[in-house]
Amino acid sequence: MIACEVFENGICSLLSRLVPEGREADAPLPGNLRLWANDARLLMRALPAASVEKLFLLFPDPWPKARHAKRRFVHPLLLPEVARVLEPGATWRVASDDPIYQDWVAKVMAGQVLFEAPAPVAERPQGWPPTRYEAKALRSGRTPLYWTFTRRG
Which of 2, 84, 88, 153, CA to CA, is 20 to 30 A from 23? Predict the structure, then answer.
C-alpha cells in the first residue's frame, strides 16, 4: 500500500493513527505501507506498468477555478498514465462531494476509452474507507458521488 498525500498535515494525520503517542522515534510502520509525501502524478510516472491492482482518489482538491483544471488528478492527459500503472481489470475508485469536480469527472470519463465508466452512486460502496472529508461533506449537506472505474484489458 502506498499512501500518497502532498500536504504534510495529511501525512501527519495518518502517522498519528498508526504510531502510538510517545513512540514516534521507535514504533515501526506496517511493513506493507509506503508513504509518498509528494505529488501523486510524479509517483504514477515512477511506477512500473501494470503494478497497481486498486487505486483510490478520495475527495481530492477540486481546483474549482477553470484556470486550475490542469491540476486536477482526473484529467484527460493523466488517464493514459493511470491506465498504464493499473493491471487490466484493476479498479480506480474516485469520490468527490464538489459539484464542479463531479461534473468534471463525468465529462472526462465519458470521453475516454481506457476505462469502463459506469455512473456514480450516491452512497459509499461497501469496502470503501470513510474519510473526514466525506464526513464533513455529509454534515454540510453535500452529496458525495462514488465512481468505480475498471481498467480495460
Answer: 2
> Do 80 and 41 contact (CB within 8 A), yes or no?
no
**Which residues are annotated as catalytic?**
61
Do residues 38 and 6 make contact, with C-beta atoms less than 8 angstroms apart?
A: yes
CATH 3.40.50.150 fits 49-151, yes or no: yes
Tens-place pLDDT, residues 111-139: 999 999 999 999 999 999 999 899 999 99
Domain boundaries, the chain: 1-38, 49-151
